[in-house]
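Re: beginner question about structure tokens

> Can someone show what the tokenized structure looks like for a real chain? I only ever see the sequence side.

Sure, here's an example I had lying around. Input first:
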Amino acid sequence: MVRLGNDWDEIVGEEFQKDYYLSLREFLKKEYFGGVVYPPMEDIFNALKYTPYAEARVVILGQDPYHGEGQAHGLCFSVRAGVPKPPSLKNIFKELADEYGMPEPPTGELVGWARQGVLLLNTTLTVRAGSPMSHKGRGWEELTDSIIRRMNDKERPVVFLLWGGHARSKKALITNPRHLVLECAHPSPLSAYAGFFGCGHFKRANDFLRSHGEAEIDWTRTV
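And the corresponding structure tokens:
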């Protein structure tokens, strides 16, 4: 039984009893004990553990975890302190620097965002080492689609940041007019110059939160 330790247990707890998740669990047992899988088992649900449902005000959607050694720790785009920043994360920090004039944070760890109510959710929560998208279609998407729908149900206004085609494909799940959906290209070096740079999403998110009486996200506070 998965225990998240906060209000997500009640919000999505029933998902862990469904056939798709039980099948996914058996698949993951074989994967973790038969090879190298990221993130470590204890970090799989960190996005939900760090950001309780009641406190979630911004959602950033990723695709699947980093597949290199020591990178993934359960928060999309984030790496542990001391791990070199991946290119997409460096581009995220470049956009932040352009919007706020802030220096690049010393580490790529985004726990500070998560603790402020930024749900850093990959749509697939595990990956085989060195093999991107290797756990796609195994059941994670059913769980994370459910999480997105629960965020859509919130009465509290939420900002959804959808970067790239995969994240933007989830827009159909966000139907509540009280929320703000911001879309642009992915921060990957392959596409960042096609619309991510200059998107202004971090300031626009804070403008929206402030206009609805919510505290802004301090994007400079990453840890």
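Each token stands for a local structural state, so reading them left to right follows the chain. The beta strands are 37-38, 58-62, 118-122, 127-128, 159-163, 180-184.
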